[in-house]
Every structure is written in C-alpha cells, then in structure tokens.
Amino acid sequence: MTTTSEPTRHGVPRLRVAPSPTGDPHVGTAYMAMFDLAFARQQGGSFVLRIEDTDRARFDPTSEQQLYETLHWLGLTWDEGPDIGGPHAPYRQSERLGTYQPYVERLLAAGHAYRCWCSAERLAQMREEQQRQKLPTGYDRLCLGRTEEERAALPGFSPDPVVRMRIPDDVELSWDDLIMGRTSAPQPDDQVVLKADGYPTYHLAVVVDDHEMGITHVVRGQEWISSTPKHLLLYRWLGLEPPRFAHMPLLRDEKRAKISKRKNPWARLTWFAERGYLPEALVNFLALQGYPPIVEADGSEREVFTFAEFTERFRWEDVNRAGSIFNLDKLDWLNGLYVRALSPAELAQRLLPHLVADGVVSPTPSEADRERLVDLAELVGTRIVVLTDATPLVRPFFVADGDLEIAADARAQLDDGAAEVLDAAAAALNALVPDGAWDGPSIEAALRGALVEGLGIKARLAFGPLRTAVSGQRISPPLFESMQILGPESTLARIESLRASL
Ligand code: GLU
Questions:
Q1: Any bridge partners for residue 322, and if so which?
Q2: Which residues are known to be catalytic?
Q3: Beta bridge partners of 338
Q4: Can you tell me the distance from the alpha carbon of 179 to that of 401, in angstroms, rounded to the nearest whole number?
Q5: What is the distance between the alpha carbons of residues 3 and 20, in angstroms, rounded to a whole number?
Q6: What are 148-158's pLDDT values in tens digits?
Q7: Ligand 1, atom 3: nearest CA belongs to which residue?
Q8: Residue 10, pLDDT score
Q9: Residue-level pLDDT at 231
Q10: Which residues line ligand 1 (CB under 6 A)?
Q11: Residue 293 has pLDDT above 60, yes or no
Q12: What does the angle CA 480 – CA 483 – CA 486 come to, to the nearest 5 degrees?
C-alpha cells in the first residue's frame, strides 16, 4: 500500500469533491471534502469543486448555492470551482458536454463501445425475466453487432440510442485502494456511457473530467466500489493514467444502514447549520466518523481536535475501513465542549444570526443590545447544547416589560405564598437601589435575607416566583445575574406586574 510519505506518481496532489446538485447538500459531501482537503493542504496540493449535474431528472437549481454556503460555513474552501473558476473551467459537467463527445467517438471507433436502441420497456422486461429466472441481471447485448436498421426490425426499439461499454469477460476487477488495500468488485455489465439525451453518464464524465482536471486522488464513498473496475477500464481504453482511489467508509445510522436524506433529516447539511451546531464541532465529528482519535504521548486518546491538527497527522492508511455510527449524542457532546470554549463575545457573535432569525434581536442591534447579548452569552453558555437552545433563554431579555409573557407551566407553579414572596422581594430590591449595589451577589444577599431568613421560606420556593416574574419561564439563566442584566427598573416592574396579576 502507498503511504502518504511516499511521493505520488502524479507529482503535486490534486483532489476534488464532485457532488450532484440533487436537493439539499448531503452531509457526506462535507465528509468527503474534509478528507480531500486535509490531504491536499498537507501536501501543498489543490482542492477542486466540480458539480456533477448530468442527471437532469434529479437536478435542483437551488442546491448549488446551498452547497457553497454550507461548505463555506464549515470552512472547507476550494481552490477551483464553478463559482471561482480555475485553469480547467468550466467546473459544471452540463457546461462541458462538448468535452465528452470525442471520448465517446474514440470508444466507438475502437469497438470498446456500441450503440444500443433498446427501449426502457424492453430493458425493464429483460430485467424482470432475469430476476424471475434468478439469473444475474445485466444487459443481454441484443444490440451488440447490429446496425440501426437490423435492430429496428426487432421488438422494443427506440429511435434514440444510448452508448454502452462492451465490458470484456476478463476485465480487471481489483486495484490497490489507498484506504481499503487490495480491493475488488463484481463483474460489471455493459454500462451506459452516453445517455439518449446526449448527456454522459456519471461513469464517463467522472473519468474524462478527473483526467482533464489532473485529479491525482479520487476520494469517494464505498458505495462507488462497484464502479471502479468500469472506470479503470475506461482509463485503459482511452490510454490515460488512472488516479489513485480511496474509498471512504460510509456514514451509517444506528441501524448500521447507509444514511440518506430521505430517512435521516440530519443527512442534510443545512440541518446542522439551522439547529446551531458549530461548524468546528461538526468538522471534528465528521473526522471521527472516518478517522481514529489522537493518541497522546501517555497513551490516552483525544477525540477533540481542530481541522489543522487533523490535516497535520492525516495518513490514508489510518482511515477506518468500516464507518462508525453517526451518533448525534456524541455530536451534542462535542458541540457543548466547543460552545463552552468560546469567549462570551464570540458566543454572542455566533448566537446573533439565530436570535435574529427567531425574531428575538433586531437585524441591526443597538450597541446596548450587543452588550446585553455578551452578558447573556456568559450566563447561557453552560446551559445550551446547540445555539438555538439559547433562544428561549435570551428572549425575555429583549422584550419590553409589558410584553413579557408568563408561560402557562410557570404560572401554574405559583402557589398561595407567591404574593408574599413578590412583595417582600420588591421591598428588599427597592432598598438596594439607592445604594447603587445592583449586582448579582448584592441582589442574592438582599433576597436571601428577606425571603429565606426573613420569611423562613426555602430557597427553592422563594426564588421560583421571582424567576417566573423576570423571565416568564420555569427555566431561565441564573436568577440574580438575570436581574443584574435586566437592571433595577425592569426587574421591579416585572415583579410588580406579576404581583398585580395574581
Ligand atoms: N457525483 C458523485 C456523487 O454525487 C461523485 C462520486 C465520485 O466522487 O466519484 O457522489
């Protein structure tokens, strides 16, 4: 097996990620891109983004933009691509149709490919019949060696032909994979390379483009293993040097099934951004899906690492051959760690877009709002897993006192003693105002003195009504610091307002 320390046969590495724009970007695209990028950066090579949009039936025009946004959000940047151009432009396959045609002609002329006029109905019938007879499924070569005229005389003829590879029986079925070692795949059937609509299939386009774009390492999921012999054959027929292949372990759900956007909402990259995962936590998590933790000098394992650390130690031979389970609890754990490592100012910055989207903070916040948000970030940082968890905690601090809603469950908890608690608290806090000592510890001392010592009420019971008064919720950031942030006027107005509603 080749190790990364050996020079490659191809000089400076060039890697690419080649997603198909079929709806929301798949988390697997980011996973592949990360491994590509780690190796490219480590080796001083290039990373290319290519859009494989030859499947016109599944094409979604919004997905390309979403792809740019989510990959940028993750900090995975490319050196060449449809949006930024590059020496091998265009980088969208639909804009490269003229490139593929000469390759098809060469294959036809050399007898490595042939036209096939079988209609979709005939192919479906053929497949059904093969399945019924428990035969291997695959094209039966009815069109091989026939002219259009000869074929037209037979049933199941379509006037728009496809072009198929004529796969020999002795095709090479194995190769040295950078991750899997010696790998083999089953015998393919006569693969279509040019569709009836004039578009190349993935198989032809990927080979032509990887060659034309000088790609040295093809990194893709293990679901493509069965395609690799076809690609190697195309390289051979066309007299091109193949790249190295690295087939990555698949992302799997808890049932060990390959994850899909249809079954798993979190297979969509936008899901993570919307919920407020931190990109650096997701990158760390995705690296762990295919790569072991760092082993420290003392033998202990470290699962938390930056992309730069990952890049530095990356080696193909260390990539896991079997994928781990996509465990969202683990991602939550990692995200919590990354959230708590942020300074309050940084966390406030990250929270802002979510709070704006949730209508809590104005898109053009005042300086005072920004400062308040930094103060709040310090309080909520330990209480959230994802950024959107902060919305209900922060909201009460950005509503006018008169607009504060008291949640039904919080109100239901207020008992007969609530009025007395609120009155005593208001008196104690009013007394604090002239001293100018409006900070968490002073507020706490005043309230404990008045309620716990003065009225003999247990702390838990004493502070519940106050929490409800200032936040409208049963759960809020720490009470005394919340009051400090709200300031004496708002705090007292809210206590009075709840008192009046009892
Ligand atoms: N367009 C393919 C995909 O969507 C790319 C596979 C490859 O990297 O060769 O996964």
A1: none
A2: 261
A3: none
A4: 60
A5: 30
A6: 999 999 999 99
A7: 19
A8: 58
A9: 98
A10: 18-20, 52, 202, 206, 218, 220, 224
A11: yes
A12: 155
